[in-house]
Design brief:
Structural class: alpha+beta
Number of helices: 2
Distance between the termini: 30 Å
Strand content: 25-35%
Radius of gyration: 16 Å
Oligomer: single chain
Strand order of the largest sheet: 1-2
């Protein structure tokens, strides 16, 4: 399902940091399966409590879906 999970810490200010998480998927079907799994996790109270706790520590600043170029790049 999810492949090539990577985490980076980026400095964005004197005392400000950004935690970046990148995940690759083999194709759009794999991304769909991942999203379906996340939805199923969200329905459980344990995950919901953990997610709410994360809001005390993190601000979600951005969410992007990056894809390959539709044409070969030379």
């Amino acid at each position: 399902m999810a492949q090539n999970k990577r985490w980076y810490i980026r400095t964005v200010g004197e005392d400000d940091y950004c935690l970046e998480h990148y995940v690759s998927f083999a194709d759009s079907e794999a991304l769909g399966e991942y999203c379906k799994s996340v939805v199923e996790l969200c329905e459980g109270p344990e995950w919901s409590n953990r997610y709410i706790e994360q809001q005390d520590w993190w601000d979600i600043m951005d969410y992007r879906l990056l894809t390959d170029a539709p044409l070969p790049v030379n």
